[in-house]
Design goal:
The complex is a heterodimer of chains A (about 950) and B (about 475). Chain A is an alpha+beta fold. The chains are: A alpha+beta (about 950), B alpha/beta (about 475).
């Protein structure tokens, strides 16, 4: 393998120039050549890894060159490195400039070798290019294991200086230290009204009641604020608010995504589990463990097992694929989704970036990725029964006798059938003679009969040609009815005024796709697809007819395909009035389509009248058993996924370039090497049980000795309280993520969290009792010039409410909020399914939708007006933060959607009930919506508007007002 | 440790969105997600194209039955595909080679061979640059559509239209920047993910509308008189102005007032754009809005709507011709697994005349000068028949996309599949190359246009792509 012909040219000119340079260097230094020996590991490896490997590694072999191993680099054929001859070695030549100051040929992107590095490379080659055995080069990431986020948490004493003053709230001490360093200071405390609104929304996602605000504002109890926090933390709405945050993080969505996007109706128990766990202040390490392995250590306990639904709460592609390579790629994508969600949610790591190659920025090796792949390999999306062992046993005890009865009845039925078939054996020849006409023909079956006057003609299916036991579901692309007489013509045509009816498969958003009219449209290609057993044609006028021709695959070259399922046994009937019918033809004297059809005919022909009676009673009994089955208490089936031992069977390999078809080195389930120097490690044998792999990972992530999970969680808390985290990329604590504004505070919070057994409620108390949380949001020009985004928190950052808060607030102030917790969600879309699923936003929202938005069934890729427009994420990926956009569409929806009008009417009704005169109504409106008294100018304006426009229009304006959806 | 004032590049643009070229008022009204502002929006250099019309034929429209002539299929019809006699693809086993049911004929001065099923489109071949050697990563419709729209086969990424909206902003205050026009038969495979904003701010998602479906919530509620509407807006303005005045530094409050003004403008303009009464009978006839084929007429109206939107400054129109995989494949879209002839004799007449009319119309109005037209489908089809059928299975290894208009050299065929149409052979081209070229025509450097998400600066072209210079005028 030769590098590049153009470099050959370089080879001839280069030595002279390099020698000159070398001499020049010697002269300038005025030194004798005392070159120290070159150490490959110290001097060469890091340079190649940093500057060459990103394009020349086993995963990315640009120009067909891979520099990862000695064999490849020192391959004499390749002439990359010829030991002893740097000036003949392509590697050296392409990475040093041809003329001084020029850009060398390589690397294409990034910095070229420094003079020192070039000199070392040259010497290394010239001295024989020694490459210690077993060393494999890997691309170096930007950050290594000494990256801040991976370091152990310090002891609390580390903060003794900052926290020297016991009278200062510890959080304020950290914040003030930074502010002071920039010559800044905090705002004064917020107004009491602003504070209670802030705290109430923050912890419950709902507005405080006017009474709560009035009481709090008027209170002189020094403990009033502490009591407020206690009350809010005790409220079940706290779990709804903070549960929603967590559902964003774990990309919780209630449809499968991708092409079919099937809705998932039984994942809501996971949503309830999240809300309840947070309300119960469940230690978060336990919570994380349940997410990854609740089904392992909580087996038989649905309350714990449900946590592991986390694994399958993401989108995946469930379209079947016969192409083996594509199928394994899809499976790899599914596991990638789980790896991605896990590493981001709990560790703030982007492990998925190491799927195709070592992570470019963080010290995450490709092997780390595939260790997680091996860990999750047994996880399959889907549902299964989730019940206590006791419940399962009880239901099994009830099911057993019913199953036995069913088996017995079916046995009796089979025996009667067998006897009937045996009886027919003797008459086989007789039957075959009777069945003398040709079999039905999908491309055109003709029935001729004595001319008869008819207004109606119908085809009744008695059996389908692919299954003698089913009559419905046949297809007809054309049904012709021919008149008798000289000018015979097909009168069953829409164009001649005929009409066709028959129950057909329906596509809601494209009516008529399979309708009966296709049978008389004079065209083939599209066909009627029945869902019952008949097709009826009404002619334009009574006509003497003598022939029908019908088909499901007219003109098709491969009529046997399933697409053209046809009738096998049938009859043709005519009528003048559509009420009394006369049979004019049938297919019972045709040869059977298949042996299975023949056998059914034998069986039916062999039945005696007594058999008929017995069969009827058996069927009645079977129907009764079915009803009893249906009446049994059903064990809930929940979308927690299944664990498949076959899938989990090793050995596992890393996939070169991320392609399952290219297996690389073997891997085993193990902890991430990223944290190998600061957290415990583990490695499992390749045949470790699937359950153990996830349990080990869970224990490792949620270990109090693992600094990363604690830091990431502490940062999320801060993020949700202040709008921006101490690290402003809560899912990415790596090189590409943000740097902590207050690293010590972050560590302090992580330590407190650990001390606190990973419980959140006390952490909220800690954060919310700080001055920094309680300060006003007032903007100050001077401070803003220094720190425009208030990342140092010289003011409390004001915010817009989230989509859920906006909807919940509108419902609350209109007096319509239904606070029922838990259970199946409601829908703001209309769900349609025709192979794939379609979600159409609803124009009208009934009272069943008046629950808190966290209970909305959030299907993926469904756009639901207010929710989508106010930045509710789709949750295809983990959503660690909400955007706050302002768009004209928000205005259109909030002004014009029926929901606003319904709420405006309810709000107006509430206000007018409280007060009859417009002035009183203004006071009441301000009290309900903003929990404050209006100023005189506001009274005048709004009062006048009530007079002019009426209360409903005023309510519509108030519901659109910024004050309702922005918090100071 | 870095100082918090070491403004990372992500945060940088958060404060200075006003200085960029081509940024409309709507651009100013956002407070993007924290920590999520890209390195560079654009334009990076003057582009030939100002706006884009992307026509999408979902279901994998067959390259060898529409755009790329394969005489070898006629010669070897009924014989096995050499070297892949036992091929198993998406739906299963494949039978022998199958010729196209219709002949191809030379068209235009270039003599480009094109299916006789597309007589009207044939008139435009001299303006089209065909990419005959396209390759996809997936053989499944949903991921395939998403791939061709977003450059990623997994869900959750922004579509090309969203990137364009993000990079270049709007050309008008009266209409949305990015419009998706679904077919009357329903949404394409993977539905709304095809025009998603992904991780870009919500305002970059397409607004869906069609001749048969107005923009949602565009009309004032029934029962609200014009006078009440006016009074309500006036009161709202009073409330919001007062609230904003007390918080003068909060730009999003000011932006919100602007958003209501824009919404009102849109409310005025949107009905006009969908009102075709002002179009001459000649134009209606040209497009086929009067066709007795209701599906064709519906698509024709959407073609006409597309032109009206582009004319009025919509930046990116994503127009669909056909919809998803229904219970019977090939019925609602171009997914002709079993009965290719019957299926395409249904789809081609819907597509051909209205699309050709739209191109003719754009040309005669001079709009093609700065409008880039893309024709896309998620992948192609196999040269073989599926075993036991008269249709073709999915083929991601070679297929055709094309483009024309602003900055594109016409009458060009770039690359080719092998003699059967099975695989890209000459100049294999990725979806990333295609979009690198699109971005280039819009004045965007596809390597610079990025947005931080999920650990890296994401791009429409992932970490791939090259501009195909051979198709540039």
């Amino acid at each position: 393998m030769i590098l590049l012909e153009m470099m050959r040219f370089g080879k001839m000119t280069r030595p002279i120039f390099v020698e000159m340079l070398f001499v020049a260097a010697l002269l300038s230094k005025g030194a004798v050549v005392t070159a120290a020996p070159v150490d490959f590991v110290k001097d060469i490896q890091p340079v190649l890894e940093k500057k060459c490997l990103s394009c020349h590694n086993p995963n990315s072999v640009k120009g067909d060159i891979d520099l990862s191993t000695a064999e490849l680099v020192l391959d004499p054929e390749a002439e990359l490195v010829i030991p002893g001859k740097a000036m003949a070695s392509d590697l050296y030549l392409v990475s040093t400039p041809e003329e001084p100051g020029e850009k060398p040929y390589m690397p294409e992107e990034g910095d070229p070798l420094t003079d020192k590095e070039a000199e070392l490379l040259q010497r290394w080659i010239d001295k024989g290019a020694e490459w210690p055995e077993g060393i494999v080069l890997r691309e170096a990431s930007e950050a290594d294991k000494s990256w801040w986020a991976y370091q152990e948490l310090p002891d609390e004493e580390a903060f003794s200086v900052v926290l020297a003053n016991p009278d200062t709230h510890p959080i304020d001490a950290f914040i003030e230290a930074k502010l002071e360093a920039e010559g800044l200071e905090m705002n004064s405390p917020a107004e009491r009204r602003d504070l209670i609104r802030r705290a109430t929304y923050d912890l419950t996602g709902l507005p405080p009641t006017p009474e709560e605000v009035e009481t709090f504002v008027a209170s002189d109890d020094p403990k009033a604020y502490d009591k407020l926090i206690d009350r809010l933390l005790a409220s079940p709405h706290y779990g709804e608010r903070w549960g929603r945050h967590w559902l964003d993080v774990v990309r919780f969505g209630e449809s499968r995504g991708y092409e079919r996007n099937q809705i998932i109706d039984n994942l809501w128990p996971f949503r309830d589990y999240v809300i309840e766990s947070i309300n119960d202040d469940k230690p978060f390490d336990e919570f994380i463990r349940e997410h990854l392995a609740g089904d392992v250590f909580g087996s038989g306990n649905p309350d714990v097992e449900i946590g592991s639904a986390f694994l399958v709460a993401g989108a995946y592609d469930d379209v079947r694929n016969q192409d083996v390579d594509q199928a394994s790629q899809i499976r790899a994508n599914t596991l990638d989704e789980i790896i991605n969600a896990t590493s981001q949610a709990f560790l703030g790591m982007t492990v998925s970036c190491a799927r195709c190659h070592d992570h470019k920025f963080d010290p995450i090796a490709q092997t780390d990725y595939y260790q997680l792949y091996a860990t999750f390999a047994g996880v399959r999306h889907g549902e299964r029964v989730l019940a206590t062992t006791k419940d399962k046993q009880e239901v099994a005890a009830l099911t057993k006798p019913l199953t036995a009865r069913k088996t017995e009845l079916e046995k009796q039925e089979r025996s009667i059938h067998a006897e009937a078939t045996r009886r027919s054996e003797a008459r086989k020849e007789e039957f075959e003679q009777a069945w003398h006409r040709p079999v039905v023909d999908r491309t055109g079956t003709v029935e001729t009969f004595a001319p008869v006057e008819a207004k109606f003609v119908r085809l009744i299916s008695e059996a389908r040609d692919d299954n003698p036991n089913i009559a419905s579901g046949f297809r007809i692309d054309e049904f012709e009815v021919w008149s008798s007489g000289e000018n015979t013509e097909n009168v069953a045509l829409q164009s001649k005024g005929a009409k066709a009816t028959g129950a057909a498969r329906v596509i809601e958003d494209f009516p008529g796709a399979y309708g009966a009219h296709h049978a008389i449209d004079g065209k083939t290609g599209e066909r009627f697809m029945s869902t019952a057993t008949d097709l009826t044609i009404e002619l334009a006028e009574p006509t003497r007819i003598e022939k029908v021709i019908f088909s499901s695959a007219k003109g098709e070259s491969n009529p046997e395909h399933r697409k053209f399922i046809f009738v096998a046994d049938y009859r043709i009937e005519v009528s003048r009035d559509g009420e009394t019918w006369k049979e004019v033809a049938h297919g019972r004297d045709r040869k059977p389509v298949h042996d299975k059809h023949r056998n059914v005919r034998y069986r039916i022909a062999g039945l005696t009248p007594q058999d008929g009676g017995e069969l009827a009673s058996i069927r009645a009994e079977l129907a009764k058993v079915s009803r009893e089955f249906a009446a049994l208490p059903a064990l809930p089936s929940v979308w927690v996924g299944n664990r498949n031992a076959d899938d989990a069977k090793g050995p596992f390999h890393l996939f070169i370039g991320g392609s399952p078809a290219r297996k690389g080195d073997p891997v085993v389930p193990a902890s991430l090497s990223t944290l190998s120097e600061t957290a415990p490690t583990y490695e499992l044998p390749v045949d470790a049980p699937e359950s153990e792999r996830r349990l080990e990972l869970a224990d490792w992530i949620a270990s109090s000795e693992n600094p990363l999970a604690l830091r990431v969680l502490a940062n999320r808390l801060w993020h949700y309280h202040f709008g921006t985290g101490i690290v402003d990329t809560p899912n990415d604590f790596g090189y590409m993520g943000g740097r902590p504004t207050h690293p010590e505070l972050l560590d302090y919070l992580a330590i407190r969290l650990r001390e606190n057994d990973w419980k959140l409620k006390d952490m909220h108390r800690l954060i919310m009792t700080s001055q920094v949380y309680q300060q006003a949001s007032t903007w100050r020009e001077k401070a803003a010039k220094v720190d425009g985004d208030s990342r140092l928190l010289w003011r409390f950052p004001p915010r817009r409410l989230s989509a859920e808060e906006i909807r919940d607030t509108i419902l609350t102030v209109s007096g319509k909020l239904d606070k029922t917790m838990g259970g199946p969600g409601f829908r703001l879309f209309h769900f349609m399914q025709d192979n794939v699923c379609t979600y159409e936003p609803l124009d009208e929202h009934g009272p069943e939708t008046y629950r808190r938005a966290v209970y909305h069934q959030n299907a993926r890729a469904s756009v639901v007006d207010l929710m989508t427009e106010f930045d509710q994420p789709d949750c295809t990926f983990s959503a660690p933060e909400r955007a706050e956009t302002t768009t004209p569409l928000q205005a259109l929806t909030l002004m014009n959607h029926d929901f606003t009008m319904d709420m405006a009417e309810a709000l107006a009704a509430g206000i007018s009930e409280a007060s009859h005169d417009p002035a009183g109504q203004v006071l009441e409106a301000y009290r309900i919506l903003y929990q404050r008294a209006p100023e005189p100018e506001e009274v005048d304006k709004v009062k006048a508007a009530i007079d002019d426009l009426g209360l409903v229009s005023v309510a519509r304006a108030l519901l659109n007002s910024s004050e309702l959806i922005f918090l100071d | 440790m870095n100082s918090p004032f070491d403004t990372t590049r992500r945060r940088f643009l958060g404060n200075v969105t006003t200085g960029l070229m081509g940024v409309g008022l709507t651009q100013l009204m956002t407070r993007e997600g924290f920590g999520s502002v890209a390195t560079s929006r654009g334009p990076h250099f003057p582009g030939k194209a100002k706006r884009v019309l992307q026509i999408f034929c979902p279901g994998a429209a067959s390259h060898m039955d529409l755009w790329e002539h394969k005489p070898m299929l006629e010669k070897m019809h009924g014989q096995p595909l050499p070297g892949e006699e036992d091929m198993v693809s998406f739906q299963g086993k494949n039978g022998p080679l199958m010729k196209s049911p219709w002949p191809f004929a030379p068209a235009g001065e270039s003599g480009k061979m094109i299916s006789t099923m597309l007589p009207n489109m044939a008139e435009h071949v001299d303006d089209i640059a065909f990419f005959h050697a396209m390759q996809s990563k997936t053989n499944t419709h949903g991921p395939g559509c998403v791939f061709v729209n977003t450059g990623h086969a997994t869900e959750g990424f922004p579509s090309a239209g969203a990137w364009t909206s993000y990079a270049l902003g709007s050309l008008t205050d009266n209409l949305p920047t990015y419009v998706a026009i679904p077919d009357i038969r329903g949404e394409p495979p993977n539905g709304k993910a095809n025009w998603s904003n992904g991780f870009l701010p919500a305002r970059h998602q397409a607004i869906t509308m069609a001749a048969h479906q107005p923009i949602r919530n565009i009309e004032r509620p029934s029962g609200v008189s014009m006078q009440k509407e006016k009074g309500t807006r006036e009161l709202l303005n009073f409330l919001n102005e007062r609230h904003a005045a007390e918080r003068a530094a909060e730009t999003d409050l000011r932006a919100r007032i602007g958003a209501y003004e824009l919404a009102a403008k849109m409310q005025m303009s949107a009905p006009e754009v969908s009102d075709f009464a002002s179009e001459s009978p000649h134009i209606h006839k040209l497009y086929g809005t009067d066709s007795g084929n209701e599906l064709k007429a519906a698509y024709a109206r959407n073609c006409l709507l597309s032109r009206r939107l582009l004319e009025r400054g919509v930046r990116y129109v994503n127009l669909y011709c056909s919809s998803r995989a229904s219970g019977v494949d090939g019925l609602l879209n171009w997914d002709a697994h079993k009965t290719l002839k019957a299926d395409y004799e249904r789809h081609c007449p819907i597509f051909d005349q209205p699309t050709a009319a739209l191109l003719t119309d754009l040309k005669q109005l001079g709009l093609l000068e700065d409008t880039l037209v893309l024709w896309t489908s998620e992948f192609g089809r196999m040269p073989t028949r599926q075993e036991g059928t008269a249709g073709r299975d999915h083929n991601p290894d070679g297929f055709t996309l094309w483009m024309m208009g602003a900055g594109v050299k016409g009458g060009v065929s770039y690359g080719a599949t092998d003699e059967f149409g099975r695989r890209a052979e000459d100049k294999p081209t990725t979806v990333w190359d295609y979009y690198a070229t699109v971005m280039h025509l819009l004045g965007l450097d596809f390597k610079k246009l990025s947005f931080y998400h999920n650990g890296i600066d994401q791009r429409l072209t992932d970490v791939h792509g090259k501009v195909i210079k051979q198709v540039l005028a």
